[in-house]
Amino acid sequence: MRPVLDPWIEGYLDYQRKVRRLSANSIRDVRCTLRRAVLMMEQIRPGVLLWKATLEDYLQWLNRKREAGYSTLSINKELSHLRGLLDYTWRSGRADRNVLDGLTLEDEPRARMPQSLSIEQARQLIEACPGGSRQQRRDRLILLLLYGCGLRTAELCQLDVGDVDLERQELVVRHGKGDRARCIPVPEVIWLVVLAYLGERKGRRGALLRTFEKHVRLRAQHVCGVVAEAGRRAGLPLALTPKMLRHSFATHLMDRGVDLGVIASLMGHRSARETGVYLHRLPGRAEAAVQLLSRRNGGDR
Question: Which end of the chain has fewer CB atoms < 10 Å from its terminal CB, N or C?
Fold first, then answer.
């Protein structure tokens, strides 16, 4: 059973939404953290509000998270959410101090190497895409945009026709993660496919990618289905996902020696540090270059 959050917490979430303008996904994430913390703190100190709990209480909370198998990364994320609430409460005069101020776990786990395609597998995937029907050509474009531009699934689904900048040969991502916007230069080979698709789609408004049955915006499950089917058709020895295509985009750029800061910008990361997970050497990627990734993606602009 979900706990009913204190009105003060609801007020804090409202502040995050209206004043700090956090995205709906971020608000949902913080709300889930606070709900879990309320439930666990009720076991540790029944009846004590989160901003009235002591540092010792939170150390017990931390130990229980550890015992439950939560990773250091996950615990630090929840600590950040809790620090935000306690800081808000302290600044509002409801607490004497933020007992979590400066508390973080130092033993960060090794980042897992993201799963991605080899260059040959990427070429095999694209070459296996049929283009006989309008739907097949749309599905091929989905793969090209995920792999050739490094889009997240949600970003791809939210693209409108108006987000294709014909003058600058770019895609405008208006609502990236954290509600951050960015522009992505489109490689020449993919750009020609985009232009052909626009000419066939007709209409200058609405979702760029739509279903053919009801002409509504594609959703994440549609995209995941298209990608998984394409992977099976290409005979790839792994269950292909949109995220793997995004990882392949970054990894192949890294293999070509593209600057980490440029990749971070193209991926929509807050900093190059987030992109550091791609600093690994994988066999068989030293010399080859993917035709779909033009030099414009390498930061020539």
Answer: N
